[in-house]
């Protein structure tokens, strides 16, 4: 039976690399830095821009909500916005649900 199964000989393992554990630590720091600049920083920038846009909302602005509802701002509160989505039809949504401002006159063309 031993003749059919060749024996595996263990090879000596290599070291952690030419520079050792310091090189591994530096590479981990570089990877974390890259992740910060690729993933975290753009999200923070986008969140700041959204917060600034929400704080600039004014009565008469035409906006789109995260649900895709297009409406005109008729009333502003601390946390809620009242939108007129059709003649005489008004809904209340949270301010943070407003995703973008639309150019004036967008409602008339929609």
What tags apply to this protein structure?
110 residues, 35% helix, elongated, SH3 type barrels, alpha+beta, 2 domains, 26% strand
Structural summary, described in words:
This protein has 110 residues and is an alpha+beta fold. The chain folds into two domains: 18-56; 58-110, SH3 type barrels (Roll), CATH 2.30.30. The chain is built from two helices and five strands. It has helices at residues 21-55, 106-109, and strands at residues 62-65, 70-76, 80-86, 89-94, 98-102. Strands 4-3-2-1-5 form a five-stranded antiparallel beta sheet, covered by helices on one side. Strand 2 and strand 3 (80-86) form a beta hairpin. The radius of gyration is 29 Å and the shape is elongated. The N and C termini lie far apart (81 Å). The mean pLDDT is 86.
What is the gist of this entry?
The chain is of the alpha+beta class and 110 residues long. The chain has 2 helices and 5 strands; from the N terminus they run αβββββα.
Overall residue-averaged pLDDT value = 86
Name of the CATH architecture of the largest domain: Roll
Described by strand count, sense and barrel closure, the largest sheet is: 5 strands, antiparallel
What is the topology, as strand order, of the major beta sheet? 4-3-2-1-5
| Overall structural domain count | 2
By CATH reckoning, the class of the largest domain would read: Mainly Beta
SSE order in H/E notation?
HEEEEEH
Shape: elongated
Structural class: alpha+beta
Termini Cα gap: 81 Å
Counting DSSP H or I runs of 4 or more residues, the number of helices is 2
What ranges have pLDDT less than 50 throughout 5 or more consecutive residues?
none
Portion in beta strands: 25-35%
Subunit organisation of the chains: single chain
CATH topology of the largest domain: SH3 type barrels
Helix content: 25-40%
Radius of gyration: 29 Å
